[in-house]
Amino acid sequence: MAARFASSKPPSFFLLGAKVTPFGRAYFSTSIVGESPVLVRDFIHAALYDPEHGYFSQRSGSVGVLDRSIKFNQLEGRKAYMKHLDAIYKQSDTSWFTPVELFKPWYAHGIGEAILRTANLSVPLKIYEIGGGSGTCAKGVMDYLKLNAPTRVYDNMTYISVEISSSLAKKQIETVGEVDSHLKKFKVECRDAADPNGWGIEQQPCWVIMLEVLDNLPHDLIYSKNQVSSWMEVWVENKCDRSELSELYKPLGDPLITSCMEILDLAKDGTTHGSMAGSVARNILAKIFPRPRRCWLPTGCLKLLQVLHGALPKMSLIASDFSFLPDVRVHGERAPLVTSKKDGKSKDHNNYLDAKGDADIFFPTDFLLLERMDHYCSGWSKPHEDNSKSKKGKKRRTLMLDTSSFMEEFGLPLKTRTKDGYNPMLDDFKNTKFYLSVPTHNIK
C-alpha cells in the first residue's frame, strides 16, 4: 500500500488522497541485492517487503485506526477539517490512514452498494479482499449488507481476506468481530495473493476488492538508448565494492515483461505498430536528437490478474487507486514516486535505486492499461486484436469512474459534507479512480 507522507502543508498531502506512513530507521545498505543481478521488479519487492531490510518491514506500527468516525456535519468547512486531521495525525504519528478509514463507514458502504447492485444474488455472495489493512473495509461492507441486503444474502455470504501480514490479519479479525454475526462469515487467509499455489479453482461467481493495492505492486523497467533502438530489460546489480547499486541492461527474455509489452503494443525492436511514415520520422529524430527512453511496466499487476482470473474465472473486480501522481522525479513513462521521511520532513528522490529499505515506492495506475490487462488475462482479448470487430461477444464489462463520481453513484456523499458544503471525499481525491469489471454471459 502506498503512502504520501504528511507534511507541514496538509492541503498538498490531501490532494493525493493518500495515507500517512510512519518513518522508521533508515537502512542504507545494498544488502537487498545479493551477488547476482535481479530484475527491477525483484529489487522493488525487496526494497518494500524484504523481512529484514524492506520499507514496510522496518515500519512495524499498526495500520491507523480512528477511534470513531469523523462527524463531518459538525465541521465548519475545509479549514476545520484540516485542523481536525492535523490533531489526528499528531496523536497517531506511528500510523497511516486509508480513505476507507478516514471516511468510515461511508466509503465502504459505497463499495457495498456497488456489489449489492451488480452481484448475482441467485448464488451465495462470496467476497475476497486483497490487502485488507485493519479490516475497516470488510466490516463496513458487511455492516451495509446486513442492513440493506435481503436477509438470505447476508446470512449465506462469505468474506475472505487475503492478507500477507500476520499482524494485520489478527487486527482484521478484531475489527470485524465487533459485530458477532460477522465472524461466522469472515475469515483471513494469511498468504500472498499473487502466489497461485494459495488458490484453488472457484467456479461460482464472486467479488474481489483491492483498495490501494496496485500502487505498491512491483514493476519492471525497460530501456532503449534512443527512439529506434531495441528495448532492453533493466536489472539491478551491486558494483564491485558493494557500496553502490547500478543498472544492467540485458536483451528481452522475461515472459512477464514480454507479455506486458505485447499488451502495450510495444515492439521489441523499439518501435510501435504504426505507419511507415512514422517509422521514417522516428529514424530521423533518433539521428538528430537521440533520446534515451525508459518505460515502466506493471508486471506485478499482470501477474496478480493472471492468478486471479485463473483461480476465479467468474470473478467481479472492484479496485481503487491513484490515477496520477504529482511531483514525480524518477524518469520514465508511468514512473513511481519514491519518498522517504527524516526528522519529520519528506524527501522525494530522483532515482528509484535510492530506495534501499528507507523509502516508499508507489506507482500511478494507468486504468486503460489495467482494462486491457484485465481483458487479456480473462482470455477475452489478445494483443493487437480489434475487439470491436470481433464476432465474439464481450467476456467482461468494465467501468472506470473517478472517486467522486463513484461515491455520487453508489455512496452517500451527504454524510461526508461539512457545514459550508465542502466535501473532502469528493473534493480532495482528484487523482484516484475506481475500476469495476464484471463478467458477462455474452460470450458466444
How would you describe this structure to a colleague?
The protein has 444 residues and is an alpha/beta fold. It has a domain of 258 residues: 3-Layer(aba) Sandwich (Rossmann fold). The chain has 16 helices and 15 strands. Strands 4-3-2-5-10-15-14 form a seven-stranded mixed sheet, sandwiched between helices. Strands 1, 6, 7, 8 and 9 form a five-stranded antiparallel sheet that branches. Strand 6 and strand 7 form a beta hairpin. Helix 6 crosses helix 7, helix 6 crosses helix 15 and helix 13 packs parallel to helix 14. The longest helix has 14 residues.
List the main descriptive attributes of the protein structure presented here.
single chain; about 450 residues; alpha/beta
Helix residue percentage: 25-40%
Give me the CATH superfamily of the domain at 59-216 and 300-325 and 366-439. Answer: Vaccinia Virus protein VP39
Instruction: Kindly identify the CATH topology of the domain at 59-216 and 300-325 and 366-439.
Output: Rossmann fold
Overall average residue pLDDT: 84
List the helices and strands and how they pair.
Blueprint: H1 10-14, E1 38-39, H2 40-49, H3 55-58, H4 78-91, H5 99-102, H6 106-118, E2 126-130, H7 136-148, H8 151-155, E3 158-163, H9 166-176, H10 180-183, E4 186-190, E5 206-211, E6 220-224, E7 232-238, E8 245-251, H11 255-264, H12 276-288, E9 293-297, H13 299-311, E10 315-322, E11 337-342, E12 345-348, E13 360-362, H14 367-378, E14 396-402, H15 403-410, H16 424-427, E15 432-439
Parallel strand pairs: 2-3, 2-5, 3-4, 5-10
Antiparallel strand pairs: 1-7, 6-7, 6-9, 7-8, 10-15, 11-12, 11-13, 14-15
Helix pairs in contact: 6-7, 6-15, 13-14
Keywords: Methyltransferase, Mitochondrion, Transferase
EC number: 2.1.1.320
InterPro entries: NDUFAF7, NDUFAF7_sf, SAM-dependent_MTases_sf
